[in-house]
Structure to design on (452 residues):
């Protein structure tokens, strides 16, 4: 595809009903695609001394998208009043339309733009808390979530659901995971526990891609089970969703779905979308920051929460332009990232004599790789110390997960690295990680040496 200098910002086209419609091309319109050297140029701001194997945490933003963001910032700073009255609403609507088309939502009004998935969680759980407070839910009614739910989500459930009188049941998932059936089985057991003594399961919070350990969850199957079992509301937390796994709101069928755009869709921090399926349930959704637009619908409320920098939310069409420079666009990127991370994960596991944390078809653009047992990782504190040691001594950035050994296990693998693959990664990054661990093993290193 042509170089970025020929790309222009797509302006929305007014429709007879006053809405704006953005055409989202499924395939690039030009004959050539971005070259490897252009990709590296787009990410030249990355620290070249670090093997950056942790795209999953904070994502990555290419230079062309950062430049577009700076233009949005300047447009605001030049004349804030004109920007507020003439450009902001139009720009946010264009972003919502891009997302609506990418995730196959039915209506643009189902899409709200928020700062991050954590904000989206607060929006969904806030209305659950109100339902308890107003007597629509009874004390002891149940919310089900995965044991491997993100830490901030667990805290939000505690703050909004438990405090309001709800009972929380966690789905105990195995790790390593060998099949989707294991997850489905444990999910059914949790729903059965939730309905004991005639209780009602009011909410299921389901990750699409768990963070640590990282596994792609069979969300479509779990949503169907929720419908069959009478779960009132289903919320899919997909912080790693868009750009990492396939998204189709009509196929997934959840009531609510959120995903960050700064993790795997090349946006700057921080921007996410919250999908609320059109239904009476969605009418009671409000942004937790109350501003002038309160009562005008969540999408409108979220588009203005006071004076702030909205540029990350406005730059989504430019991120799409970057994505469309790749062969196959977003689907092509996902496929190549998945294949590469599996290949590198298998290389590392073979080099260390360990195993992957799940079958290849249960990972997206991240995969868990067992670390040698002789490193003696024995706690979460060990994982943080080892991670810092790899960063500071070897120039490798990678998160590490502690898995408690099971009773009777001989020489168990207790540490797993979560490696990511994004378009800027090279095979040398993973070889650097391999060699660093091999050097630690050869030197008889154990995590005990990192303790004061």
């Amino acid at each position: 595809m042509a170089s970025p200098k020929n790309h222009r910002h797509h302006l929305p086209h007014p429709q007879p009903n006053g809405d704006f419609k953005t055409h989202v091309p499924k395939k690039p319109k030009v004959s050539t695609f971005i070259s490897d050297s252009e990709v590296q140029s787009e990410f030249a701001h990355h620290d070249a001394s670090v093997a950056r194997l942790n795209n999953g945490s904070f994502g990555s933003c290419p230079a062309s998208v950062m430049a577009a963001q700076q233009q949005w910032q300047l447009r605001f700073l030049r004349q804030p009043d004109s920007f507020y009255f003439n450009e902001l609403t139009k720009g946010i609507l264009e972003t919502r339309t891009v997302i609506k088309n990418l995730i196959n939502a039915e209506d643009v009004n189902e899409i709200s733009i928020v700062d991050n998935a954590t904000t989206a969680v607060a929006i969904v759980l806030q209305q659950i808390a109100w339902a308890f407070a107003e007597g629509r839910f009874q004390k002891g009614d149940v919310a089900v979530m995965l044991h491997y739910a993100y830490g901030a989500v667990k805290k939000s459930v505690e703050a909004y659901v438990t405090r309001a009188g709800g009972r929380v049941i966690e789905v105990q998932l195995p790790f390593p995971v060998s099949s989707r059936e294991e997850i489905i089985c444990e999910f059914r057991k949790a729903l059965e526990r939730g309905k004991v003594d005639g209780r009602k399961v009011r909410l299921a919070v389901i990750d699409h891609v768990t963070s640590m350990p990282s596994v792609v969850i069979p969300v479509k199957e779990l949503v169907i089970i929720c419908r069959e079992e009478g779960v009132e509301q289903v919320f899919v937390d997909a912080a790693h969703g868009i750009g990492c796994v396939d998204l189709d709101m009509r196929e997934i069928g959840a009531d609510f779905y959120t995903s960050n755009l700064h993790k795997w869709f090349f946006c700057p921090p921080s921007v996410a979308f919250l999908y609320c399926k059109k239904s009476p349930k969605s009418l009671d959704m409000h942004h937790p920051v109350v501003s002038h637009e309160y009562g005008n619908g969540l999408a409108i409320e979220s588009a203005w929460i006071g004076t702030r920098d909205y540029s990350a939310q406005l730059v989504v069409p430019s991120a799409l332009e970057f994505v469309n420079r790749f062969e196959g666009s977003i689907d092509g990127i996902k496929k190549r990232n998945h294949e590469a991370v599996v290949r590198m994960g298998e290389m590392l596991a073979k080099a260390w004599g360990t195993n992957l944390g799940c079958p290849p078809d249960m990972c997206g653009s991240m995969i868990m790789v067992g670390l040698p047992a002789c490193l003696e990782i024995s706690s979460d504190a060990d994982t943080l110390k080892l991670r810092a040691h790899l960063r500071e001594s070897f120039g490798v950035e990678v998160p590490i997960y502690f898995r408690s050994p099971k009773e009777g296990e001989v020489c168990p693998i207790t540490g797993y690295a979560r490696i990511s693959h994004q378009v800027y990664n090279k095979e040398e990054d993973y070889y650097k990680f391999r060699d660093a661990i091999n050097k630690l093993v050869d030197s008889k290193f154990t995590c005990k040496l990192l303790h004061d």
Q: What stands out?
A: Residues 220 and 251 are 7 Å apart (CA to CA). The chain has two domains: 92-320, 329-450.
